[in-house]
Amino acid sequence: MITLWNLFEASLLCLNAVCVLHEERFMQKMGWGTNTQQQGFEDQSTIKFQILNLVRSIRTVTRIPLIILNILTIIFKLLLG
Amino acid sequence: MNFNASRNVGHSGPRKAKRVSDVSAMGSPSPAPAFSPSPGFGGGFPPAGPPPPYQQGIPMDAIPNFGPQDPSNNFGYPANFTQSPMAPPSQIGSMLQQPVVQDMALQYGNQLAAQGREVVQRELGKYVPVSRLRYYFAVDTRYVLKKLLLIVFPFTHKEWMMKYDQETPVQPRYDINAPDLYIPSMGYVTYVLLAGFMLGLQHRFSPEQISIQASSALAYIIFEMVLYIATLYITNTNTALKTLDLLAYSGYKYTTMICSLLAGLTLGGTVYYCALLYCSAALSYFLVKTLRLQILSGGPTAPDTSYNYSTYNPSNPYTDTWAKPSSGGGTKRRVYFLLFVAITQPLLSWWLTYHLIPPSVVLQAR
């Protein structure tokens, strides 16, 4: 039975996972780097491009609020178990 | 004759200077507060004008008790200069009962409330399109009845096209094919109540269960919406569906859930499954027929690489866009998305209801 709190936790963990993917060390090794993909402007409709774009934008947007949310959640879980 | 070096030495009796104290230790006199209490006020607040700096040292030898002082202290020594600028609570209490202060407080409160309401409306208008919401709730009884009947038995309905009024969809009360948010929200509330009722029948009920069921159903709604929007974004399909439309269409499954729950409540477990199967089939048929026109008709803004020349009338499904070769995301992807929606709806309606059905118990057997 998922509740709103479970949903919040799960989404927090997922966002953390997305933000942790390192650009240099990991993405480029796997061929998902975003600097080499700008060459082909024709294939902007592939699923891979969309997903990588999504990952990059999530990383940019939610990096700072995620820090705050994580701290709050950690404090909350410490206090209430 | 007294020679007073200061210009503004007061000549009222109680302010007769007894000694010149160390004014420099006092700092500069702070101005009086904005309001001027009525003369009969014995609160010990500073007077309307700043007291002469010459006489600030006077209350130093006065006892620093701040009870209601005698009227001779009416023009009030700035007794609070040695202390914090705020008067102690007892004086605030007696101050708040003065009608002038109450009027001003009321006015200030009104102003604050108006400002707050304006801010809330502005911020809310940025995230939730309130005027769009109003469209979805423009229903009447006939529409609701016919729509409910349509969800349960859509097989004889012939005309699935939505009516348009110069590119904007007509309000739901005039067009039975238009989506609305009234039925989903009522269905959600009814589902929560019905879930509580059924749990009560099985002696599994407690008041927390209501909130657990409600938040669980809400979490599933949010999760489903996120899934649909993410799928639409990742597969890069431009459809004429807006987010609220998706919300409306995914909220119609509450009707099927309630129907199957009621059937299972009165007639037992097997009937529940039968009703669930039939209602899910009906809902899938209904969704496919309705969404086919909206998903497969192309997006609101056709991309440049498409061969669609009717870009000036994008959301009107009357323009023939069936024969377009894989533009704007591809017809195949849209069909898959349609199937995805049509399959997840029954699955979710089963998932949200099966734990509520009493295990093979018929009501009359109790």
Taking all residues together, what is the mean pLDDT of chain A? 83
Separate helix tally of chain B: 10
Tell me, what's the shape of chain B? extended
Unreliable stretches of chain B? 29-53, 55-64, 66-81, 300-316, 319-327, 361-366
H and E string of chain A: HHH
Structural overview:
The complex is a heterodimer of chains A (81) and B (366). By secondary structure, chain A is mainly alpha-helical. Chain A has helices spanning 4-20, 23-27, 47-80. Chain A contains 3 helices and no strands. The model of chain A has no long low-confidence stretch (mean pLDDT 83). Chain B is mainly alpha-helical. Chain B has a domain at 132-157 and 166-299 and 327-365. Chain B has helices at 89-95, 99-127, 130-136, 141-152, 182-201, 207-234, 243-251, 253-267, 269-295, 331-351, and strands spanning 164-165, 168-169. Chain B has a two-stranded antiparallel ribbon. Classes of the chains: A mainly alpha (81), B mainly alpha (366). Chains A and B meet through helix 1 and helix 3 of A and helix 6 of B. Chain A: This is Immediate early response 3-interacting protein 1.
List the helices and strands and how they pair.
The complex is a heterodimer of chains A (81) and B (366).
Chain A: H1 4-20, H2 23-27, H3 47-80
Chain B: H1 89-95, H2 99-127, H3 130-136, H4 141-152, E1 164-165, E2 168-169, H5 182-201, H6 207-234, H7 243-251, H8 253-267, H9 269-295, H10 331-351
Antiparallel strand pairs in B: 1-2
Helix pairs in contact in B: 5-6, 5-7, 5-8, 6-7, 8-9, 8-10, 9-10
List keywords for this structure.
heterodimer; A: 81 residues; mainly alpha; 3 helices; 69% helix; B: 366 residues; two-stranded antiparallel sheet; 2 strands; 1% strand; extended; membrane (chain A); transmembrane helix (chain A); transport (chain A); signal (chain A)
Brief write-up:
Chain B: It is a multi-pass membrane protein. Chain A is mainly α. Chain A has helices at residues 4-20, 23-27, 47-80.
